[in-house]
Amino acid sequence: MGRTWKKPVAASLAGVLALGGLAACGNDSGSGGDDDVVTLSYWKSADTGRPDFEAFMEVVNKFNDEHEDIQLDVNTTPNDDYRTRLNTRAAGGDLPDVFQVWPGAELRPLVEAGAVEPIDDIEDYWLDSGLLEEGSFDEFTIEDNTYAVPVNSNPTHFIYYNKDMLSKAGYDSFPEDYEGFLQLIKDLKEEDVTPISLGNSGGWVLQSVYISTIADRFTGPDFLEGVENGDRKFTDPEFIQGLEVIEELNNMEAFNNDLNTIDSIQMIDQFLQEESAMVMDGNWAATEIIENKQEDQDIGITTIPLGDRNSISNTMGSASAINSDISDEKKEAAKEFLKWLYNEELFKELQSVGRIVPTNVENPNDELDPLINEMMEITQEAENAPVYDATLTPSLNDELENQLQALTLGETTPEEIGEALQDEVE
Amino acid sequence: MHLLRSPWKIGLGLVLPLIIYMVFGIIPIFISFYYSFMAWDGFSAMNFVGIENYVTAFQDSTFWLSLRNNILVVLASVLGQIPIGLGLALLLNRKIKGAKFFRTIGFLPVVISTVVISITWRMIYNSEQGLLNNLLETTGLGFLQQNWLGDPDSAIFAILITIVWQFVGLYFIIFLSALQTIPKELLEAAELDGAGEWHKIVHITLPSIRNVILVAIVLCISGSLKTFDLIYVMTQGGPAHSTEVMATYMYSETFEGLSYGYGSALSILILVFSLILILITTKVMGVKRA
User: Fold this and answer.
1) Contact A261 B127 (CB under 8 A)
2) Hey, is the C-beta of A395 within 8 angstroms of any chain B C-beta?
3) Where's the ABC transmembrane type-1 domain (chain B) (predicted)?
4) CATH 3.30.50.10: does it fit domain A158-313+372-425?
5) Number of domains in chain B
6) Tens digits of per-residue pLDDT, B154-206?
């Protein structure tokens, strides 16, 4: 604990000194001597207590020990607030030197405003060493320039289920088709068990975990692109069918009834306390489930059996980008930091706690939890679908999340949602 | 006394606060006013769109809903906090056993951080494990159980109760201290003339603290217009916007939806609405300028 306050204090002291330096010499950006230490500020969203976040930070914090010429000043913000904070700072033209970014719609406005430095010149570092493939950078490439390095792929949809609770309801394996899935929900209800835990108070779970995959099974992966260039519409029957699945699950009371007042962490808690037999969440939940489950709990993993294609919404995650508005010296240091950080150790660490990394690092399979192995297999076999919040503009995504909440309250219908979203597009 | 003889010194002392107030209070209002005519996502170039943001706001059902909720908060505060606070103050302004204890209890919510209050009440209202539903269940009132914060019809009222609870203590203390300034002689004289408790309250106590009540009402209205933190933590304006007030809606549009122009227009509308409301209150209550 003692360490946590020292950093902000040190940072603000550094700030005061930097101001003093500026006032004193005017044109020199605060470096007193020539071979001074370069200080880099680094912003990362925090999921405090989650094994993958702790593993990430452990590697980050090693950086300072190994580098005397670069001093890293790390600043973390709770995940839910991070984007708001970053965007607000960006609007004020005051971004940190290096910062975590999300692909697609989150990154694009920052790039269009010229706030992010292209890293094409160091991309080969990862390609040559085989740590990352060309495709890993796709989501961070905007108009031929690459802007960030990712470290894990981030499938946002899985169903985690409690095998014992399912077998009590008469299921030795997970149903293979949608009809069977609905029957399972009915049978669980007969047993007086909440079939699926859902914590949607933040609004994003139904969007990122549910609709991104569910709608894709009907619309195919080109849908959102089609909507953007006007070929397709949110009022298309395929998208409506996706919404109808959520309506159907809600109508048959497949969810806990406090779904709109609890959050995604509480929904995992409910599942682990065996108040429900299933929970749908992204790959990040696996680390939490492995860490916190009771020893005798046997947890299975699958995806929703729906439609002909087995797709999973997926995106690249934990990427970092560089501020374009810093001195060349700092840019060099920032690139060195990225090369050092996005390296074998980090990939290994993240994989060992259950994140899916887009590379073949040597982690002997028997060291991984079977749940992770299964998750990696499922992901490799599945087609990729876009994640809605990584593709839609923030305001459209906001609208979608609110509409999905309204759907669970019976205040709107799938058709009305389609129209409302299409209105927003036009 | 020396100071009062040279007013320019007082002026000098006021310069710094004035600058700070201008920079952080007044100038941003004008900047917001300017932004409110723009379409702007915060980073890219701004586009002038005239009064389009205002037109959108007036056609935006969520905006009207948030305005309605704001009015509900004002009403609940004025009609809830003030009478209850006054009632408690009248009760405890006498020698009862444990008066100090009750005073402390009553004031406690005011000094607890709003975030703590929000999280606590969110747990109390939870439909499956919450205290309230469990209490109803065990006392045989199970039929009254609700999904308090999850149901859009009850959510805003559940929040109103929390808001009233949070600030009753503040007005209670204000009224209590006002009551203690009423000269005992007046009340004793009334007693000699044979006035009962009720007569004393209506004809002596209340008129004596009339100004304090008026000030409390103005405080109460302006306080409720600022409502943000409690709702933001308890429901984030949800489910499906049903507990949105103007400030939370403005925040989510601006900083989460990245519509800085529209958000600025909303904040200007909040300002206009607040000015109108304050104007009406001062007119109705006949608060005179000193």
Assistant:
1) yes
2) yes
3) 67-281
4) no
5) 1
6) 999 999 999 999 999 999 999 999 998 888 888 888 888 888 888 888 888 88
